[in-house]
Amino acid sequence: MEALLSLAFDNIVSKDTQKIRKGLRQIEGMLAQICLSNPKSKPSTPGHQRNTSAINLNEQQSTPKKLGQLGDDLAFREFFRLQDGFEWNVATRVADCLNRLLGMSSNGQNDLLILSSLSNLQGLLLLHPPSRIIFGREVYMNLLLDLLDPYNCPAIQSAALLVLVTALLATPPNIRTFENMDGLLTVTSLFKDEETTQTVKVKLLEFVYFYLMPETPIPSASAPNTAVPNQLAAAFKRRGSTVSGDDGAGVARINIRSQEEKQHMLARYLNNVDALVQDLNESAPFTSVAC
User: Fold this and answer.
1) Is the per-residue pLDDT at 46 higher than 50?
2) pLDDT given for residue 86 in this prediction
3) Contact between residue 64 and residue 44 where contact means Cβ atoms under 8 Å apart
4) Helices of type H across the chain
5) Which residues of 130-156 are buried (b: 16+ CB within 10 A; e: fewer)?
6) Do 286 and 210 form a contact (C-beta atoms < 8 A)?
7) 95: buried, middle or exposed (CB in 10 Å: 19+, 13-18, 0-12)?
8) In the structure, what pLDDT confidence band is assigned to residue 229 with cuts at 50, 70 and 90?
9) DSSP codes of every residue in 153-208
10) PANTHER family from the entry (predicted)?
11) What is the model's pLDDT at position 231?
12) Phi/psi zone of residue 272: left (φ > 0), alpha (ψ -120 to 50 degrees), beta?
């Protein structure tokens, strides 16, 4: 797995869009192999084995694994172990690649690479929740907020919202970073913009409902049925203290706000928040989700 990751990392740091696309597909293929069951089709003969860096989902006709199965999966355990170290953390590398893509000329091909990066990033944050800690840093949170600017296409805005939700999920320090960087103003401004498509506005409204959910402390950094120490948080705390001159406590501090406090903050930018909270409490659309 280290060899595949090393190859993918080399590709996504390239200025060649073809190599970037290849690297993102290699990461996507690795995630697919972890999340999908073994195909029931006839195995390939030794002379016709496919490259392990790519996967053909249509030919393999694999089915998603149950969430409870991942903890016992050796590939997932190895992936999780590697992600807990800063050197092999894929989410960080994909986020850096995304940042470089935003600095490149805007065109349809670049937009597709951005969408691919966001798709990979969402999967990585779901498979390895401790990686969400990177979005407690302003440079990475600002990356997602930049993607919500009106000049981006609706597909990128929608994909960025999904990654934003995943980055904030059960991670209160990231929510505080989002608030401190005027994330609420960014989201509500896009919602009020007449040029914003209806599809994106629906997703923005869903995000507002998600934001108003009660918050919970950060869960254990270990994967199900594993005992992997979370070194990623320590690495970011050390880097944060080096840059800012403090002890990095700002990254690790858990500051939970009540629903009423968040309601008051949101009301600065959006009217009729009380009705949204009432609807949220009555309909309970996210009964199994805590912000």
Assistant:
1) no
2) 83
3) no
4) 2-12, 17-35, 57-60, 67-70, 74-83, 90-102, 108-127, 138-146, 154-168, 172-180, 183-192, 198-211, 231-244, 249-252, 259-266, 273-283
5) bbbbbbbbeebbbbbbebbeeebeebb
6) yes
7) buried
8) very low
9) -HHHHHHHHHHHHHHHTT-HHHHHHHHHTTHHHHHHHHHH-TTS-HHHHHHHHHHH
10) CELL DIVISION CONTROL PROTEIN 14 (PTHR34065)
11) 61
12) left
Query: Residue 60: which pLDDT band, with cuts at 50, 70 and 90?
Result: very low
Q: Which two tokens stand for residue 83?
A: 């992600």
DSSP class of 214: P
Residue 64 pairs in a beta bridge with 36
Q: Which of 57, 56, 129, 143 is nearest to 94 (CA)?
A: 143
What does the block give as tokens for 64? 């998603």
Residue with tokens 């029931």: 40
For the record, the structure tokens of 52 come out as 């392990």
Per the CB < 8 A criterion, the answer to whether 215 and 257 are in contact is yes
Structure tokens at 190: 């896009």
d(CA 183, CA 73): 37
Look up residue 188 and give its two tokens.
């509500």
The answer to whether the beta carbons of residues 32 and 63 sit under 8 Å apart is no
Task: Say whether 64 sits in a helix, a strand or coil.
Answer: strand
